[in-house]
Model the fold of this input.
Amino acid sequence: MTALPAEAAAGGVQLVDTPGRPARPDRPVRFADPARNAAYWARIDRIVDAAPPLTDEQRAVIRTAFAASRREAA
Done:
């Protein structure tokens, strides 16, 4: 499998320092309390940052699933 450029792999989204992961967009508000909301997103960031990068095979499976759903919607 050939590697895609970063722009294609991330759907054209600017990448952060972690290869293959898109920049984090503005976050939705999950809790009315700003401190609780910040703690929630900090936890999500820690979980995502601790996850290993996807293999090329895993990326291919995800791309295939999204391509199939786009074809069904058309």
User: Anything to note?
Assistant: Residues 1-16 have pLDDT under 50 and may be disordered. The two ends are 27 Å apart (CA to CA). The helical segments are 6-9, 34-50, 56-73.
